[in-house]
Amino acid sequence: MPEGSAVRLALAPIRMKPVLRHLLTQYLVEFAAMEGSDIKRDTNGHVPYRYFDQYWSEPERFPFGIWVDDELCGFCLLRDSGEQWNIAEFFVAPVHRRKGIGAASRLMKNAHFGGLRLFR
To answer: Residue 66 contacts by C-beta under 8 Å, 6 or more apart in sequence?
Structure first.
């Protein structure tokens, strides 16, 4: 991350939904490649993800974007189970990795939401 850059974790407004959907597809394709599994895409080229739309409509789901300065470079999908916060998905685009962005985002999540556990 360039010196003087700021990492920001914030709720992704509905207008950012298409961009987050594109990042989610990147994430799912990368994940499938690591597992050696085939991927099916819908007519828009996206990999199906059952709960994506609900992150903007269900009160227990929260779509966060990860920005470096003004550039969206990742996302974190959180869910409140009532007992704890669960990380459904977490992604930093490959070009932005190894720069401390994920670690900074994790610290921000922990400061705002307390104990989180990975949920997949």
So the answer is: 7, 8, 9, 72, 73, 74, 75, 76, 92, 101, 102, 105
